[in-house]
Every structure is written in C-alpha cells, then in structure tokens.
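We now fix the convention by which a protein and its fold are recorded. Here is one such record, which you should read through line by line:

>
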Amino acid sequence: MSRAVTIAVALLVLLWTVPTLGLLVTSLRDRDQIAASGWWRAGLPATVSGFVRVGDQGEIAGQALRPGERLVAWGTSSRAPMAYRPGETVQVKGGQVSVTADGRYRLTAPNGRGMRIFVTAKVPPKLTLDNYRRVIGVEGLGRAFLNTLMVTVPATVLPILIAAFAAYALAWMEFPGRALLGAALAGLLVVPLQLALIPLLKFHNDIGLGKGYLGIWFAHTGFGLPVAIYLLRGYMARLPREIIESARIDGASELQVFRGIVLPLSFPALASFAIFQFLWVWNDLLVATVFLGNRPDQLVMTGVLREMMGARGGEWEILAASAFVSITVPLAVFFVLQKYLVRGLLAGAVKGG
C-alpha cells in the first residue's frame, strides 16, 4: 500500500511540475524556436524557416541569417523553399542569385522588381529574457502586477483579521443569537457572489465609495468572510478547553486569551485560509472588473492577460512569459505556507482526546 501511495504522489507531482517547467522554458525562447520545436528540445539546435527580400532599390547583397545560424537549404519560391543547397547559384528573371552557408546572398543583374529568398537554417539553442522585458515594460504587465498586489494583500489580511475575532466569539463566547448567527453564516456559504455584485456596487456608489481600491477590498472581504469564519470557528472550537479555562481562572480577559493562546494555536488554520483567499483574489477577474475598472492603469494581471489573449493570441512567447509572471507569487505563497495547509484543513476535522 505504501509503495502505491508513493507512486501515486510521485505521478501527481510530475503532472503538476512538468507543465510548469514547460511554461518557464517556453517563456525564455523566441518565436522561431517555439514554432520549430517543443520546449523539451530547447537545449538542441532548431531548424527554422523564413525569407528575406532582395533586389529592391539596388540591394543586391546582404545577410539572410543572424550570427551563429547555419544555412540548411534555400529557395526562390514558397512552393519549393528548400530547393537549393548552400553555395548554389540559380538563374532567376532578375539575373543570378546565390546564398552561402553562412547566409550571405548576392543577386547579379537585378531587374529592380525585387524577389524573395526563402531560407531554412539551423539555429543554436538560446534562452533570453527579452520576452519578460517586453511584457513587463511594453505590454503593461508590470503595472498590472503592482495593481494586483495592491488588491490582493489587503483583501487577504482584512478578512483574516475580522474572521479571527468572529470565529473566537462563535466558538468560545456565550451571547444571545449565537446559534442564529451560526446558521446564517452557514447559509451565506451557498450564496453565489454574482448575485451580490450589482447590489453591492450600487451600495458603494450610494455611499460614495465608487470604483477603487477601497471598494474592492471591502468587496473581497465580504465575499471571503463566510468561508473564513466557518473554517476558523471549526478549528478554534476544537482547541483544548483546559488551556482556555485555566487562563480565564487566572484572570485573563477574553482579548488576552484570544491574543495569547487562541491565535498562536490557530496559525495553521489562518495560513490555510490565507492561501485560499490569496489565490482566489490573485486570480480574480470578475470582481476586479466590477469594482476597479478597465482603464490601463486599473487593470489587474488577469485583465491584462485577457487583453493579450485577444491582441497577442499567436505570440506564444509573450503569452508564456505573461502566464509565468502571473503564477510566480502564488507559487511562492503556496510553498512558504503549504506545510500548514493540510494541518489547518484536517486538524479540526476529528476532535482529539
């Protein structure tokens, strides 16, 4: 059984890691190499094809390849782009044309109309950061990254702070309406947030919040509170009663018990919710569109990725770089807090002895 579990876990890790590695490698390659071979061949030379235009305005000599590339074959027609070997001289209507192995071409007696030379070359493996420079500096992903951080961090911290107090009150304090409040909390878990978007936006406009960071922080806080309180209440309710009662007997106030005992013991549950809330807000597009806006200076990363899918749908190197930038912070957050994730979700599932 243990061997089967180990194999299953290894397969799951492999299925999760390989696509991420492929995305990273693709984001570091240029368009020609991506079109020529898969990411797993990034360390090998690639065969790429293209063309150059010669003979216009007396341009009868030049270089068809970039440094380090070697010509494999060439041609004068798109129907036969690999008809000739390097160094061959071919008769054309404009005279004669030849292309050497290092990519130098020469056209004699041009007719002034120009022609295209199709080249197929071996390109050495190359990894570059140019794709990242373009998406961050030119495509606006850098500004969107900062916007997303400005939305996500407060929208993660605020519900944790509020939910921790509420969960402690529901778990360890006696007050009128406690059971009714718990039932209402359970009911809110099944309410789709889409139902509340327009009424909440109208309420924000009525009280003067409008669209902005404050409004989206409050919106994400409200949408995240039911899950946060439910998760933290279940965890806190199963903390050892003896410790809390002893602190109360010793004269500790509820705030001192909460701050000195309950919060430290509840850190796994707090970290678990922080992961879920952070990932939810970081990957959100709907709430950000409604409560923040669609101007270039307001777009979060998911909004920029949506725009790029329409305008740059065929530029895989740009899309791969943008996608990898968008997952770097969630990956870091997950790896930092992942040891608390399972503990926070399962520690309160069964009451200890």
Notes: The chain has three domains: 2-39, 45-123, 131-346.
